Amino acid sequence: MNEAVRWRAVITYRKTGRLRYLSHLDVTRAMERALRRAAVRVAYTQGYNQRMRLSFGPPLPVGAEGLRELCVAVLEERTAAAEIVERLRHQLPQELGCVETTVEPDDRQSPLKHLRWANWRIVVVSDPPVPPEQICGAVGLLGRQATGGTPRLEGEENDASNRILRAEAVVNGEEVEILATIGVAEDNYLSPDKLLRAVEARLQRPIALRWTRAVRVGFER
Amino acid sequence: MLPGDLLLRVETPARYVNGEINAAVKPHARVRIAFCYPDVYQVGMDHLGTLILYHVANSHEEVAVERCFAPWPDCAQQLRHLGLPLSTLETGTPLRDCDIVGFTLQYELTYPTLLAMLHMGGIPVRAAERRGSDPIVIAGGPGATNPEPLAPFIDLFCIGDGEELLEELLARYEAVTDDLGPRARWGLDERQQALAALAEIEGVYWPAAYEVHEIAGQLIPQPGRGGKEKIVARLVRDLDAAPFPTSPPVPWVETVHDRGQLEIARGCTRGCRFCHAGMFYRPVRERSPEILARQAAELVDNTGYDELSLVALNCPDHRCIEEVIEAVQGAVAGRGVSLGLPSLRVDTFSVDLARKIAQVRKGGMTFAPEAGTQRLRDVINKNVTEEDLLTAAQAAFEAGWLTVKLYFMIGLPTETAEDVAGIADLIAQVAATGRRALGRKAGRLQINVSIAAFNPKPHTPFQWCGQAPWEYLERARKRLQMAVRDRAVRLSFHDFDQSLVEAAISRGDRRVGEAIEAAWRAGAYLDAWSEFFDVGRWRQAMERTGRAPEEWAGREIALDAPLPWDVIDTGVTKEFLAGEYEKAMKGQATPDCREWECHSCGASRRVPGCRGVIPDAQCR
After folding, report:
1. Which residues of B touch A48 (CB under 8 A)?
2. What are the start-end ranges of the H helices in B304-367?
3. Distance from the CA of B409 to the CA of which of A213, B93, B121, B570 falls in 20 to 30 A?
4. How far away is chain B from the Cα of A153, in angstroms, using its nearest Cα?
């Protein structure tokens, strides 16, 4: 391997529990500080205001959880992935913990490039209850595979169908669990909130949410 | 922590979640204290005093100090709606279940928020209405040097530096609970006994032990049973030995300053006659470069901050400032950490220092000439000349700064139209200096000028002076806006209505407490935020005192009249302050005692031969 090649750490972390209320900027700041505390030798940008060379995966909305979020740190020197995991373990709470890390040459395409889809698990309890079966049915009619198209959302130019790759739902007591693959790229981004609005549009009635939990479980290219 | 469904309905929910790195969570501590900051998390988390005391008290195994901040109105409304009490961050303990609830008094307009927090926390706002088992409510900070406006609401005030006082308070509290049993089972008698025992500690003021008598139109507290003649402010003599938090909680959300803080010195002997901090925190105490280097390294290790700020009333006054900068820079080298030096006095700002700071960080460069003419600068004892300012500005521009900030006040005692015009002249000269020094970059020159109304503060030589009327301040503002037409200059004015209420409270007596309560009951909350401040509400509230806010703020007090805050001895004598007032009226300056001779301000009573600074020498 060429000695001049830089190395990067691809850190997979979670954002769960009470820390789901952190914004994307909060998370990036927390990660930068954790890396500095952990004395992981991250490279800095050149110039007057030097910044750590970090990049992050698509932002996660405030209140949403993520199980496999991504942070890429360009390293000053090659460091073993296990060492980075161990050092970060002491510097981040469990809810924002490192799931795994790989170290790879920085001359390859960034793993953050061309991330187009995210897999979501969204649990909804409506109040007063819209029958869960109806929500389920409406979800099944969303997405590219659905027939009849997806209604246009208020304030949006196009319907949401090209931003929903797959969507299905199952009823579990009073809960409806929606499993959806929705866009995270600039040209197809859809938030879980908007997905629920698409469901409402399909139902032609609002879902008064008593409780909801949105978890991004991973990405697809 | 607040319930999740509530957090989804409020702005910036991460400020309520706790679990920050270095937060001290001690669910089984014997004594639980809530440290409350009567403003929001993003403001309070930057307060160094709170962080210091959090560190001091949490060093005790049996004691848990937890933080509590004022919730933003959307969250406060949700708490009310759900019937939930205001609770601490660390363990979610309602304020009413804590043993001690402490507040820091940094700014008068936060006082209604303090009452709101007590009420939201389930504690009766009036001290006299508290039951035996209610928490003991304490308050400290600069605002406590005139405790009278808050006397009806606070059980005990802690005056002066808090590090040692808090240690003693905790020890005494534990002894009291050994004698009287746990607080939750106290009746009113036990509560009185506990308050009396805690009030014996030096620096603690127990307002309920004083009766107030009206003398010359002011309510003056006089000691009754359990009341001391004078409450002597506490003083930490050795800053090197004093505890300092090198692992403070690291906020999840961005705070106003959002950086690590290193206190390099406490106190100032320059003697500006309007400055409360400069009189209150005497003499100067400095930390040595070696200690600061160690603390800087620990702070970065423990927090991961990418910026450290050196904190003092005027950083360049530290006798070893160059060594301090070198030592701190060396301690954090190679870790992507920048250094900031926030407060600069123009006459101590050298070209060398400008270069040294420029190497690390080109943040804001702020100068505070305060007044526009030499005559008025002599009156306020701002011992800087026009030449000082222009030399400092030139040094800054030559070192690469394109933007400087200037602070001025209007409505200062003896001010004339000529002094106001002098502000515009001085700004123009700084702008001309900037253009000359910057040459081809002159087009990028920016001078931000911040202008505030003079606010007379207790325990200063101007405590006897009134605040200038609103109409005068408005006229001065318009005159300055007309006179300063340079596109490189941005003028901003502090809200004069807020200044009016601040001044009315800061020199108030116990009657002003009635107005604070009335304002809170009428909805005053987070009044330091201009979007929530309503001067009309304060006018109505002040009617309860029988005086308009203008009468409280603008009143001139005779030099020989007793003052509501005379019971507090900050270390500086009233005779010294009166002498300074008289010299001000004659336009005579008093040089810094560190460079001249002792002016007998009173500090040497506590630190014999202090010469303005302790220890005597420490620079290499």
Report:
1. 362
2. 321-331, 351-360
3. B570
4. 22
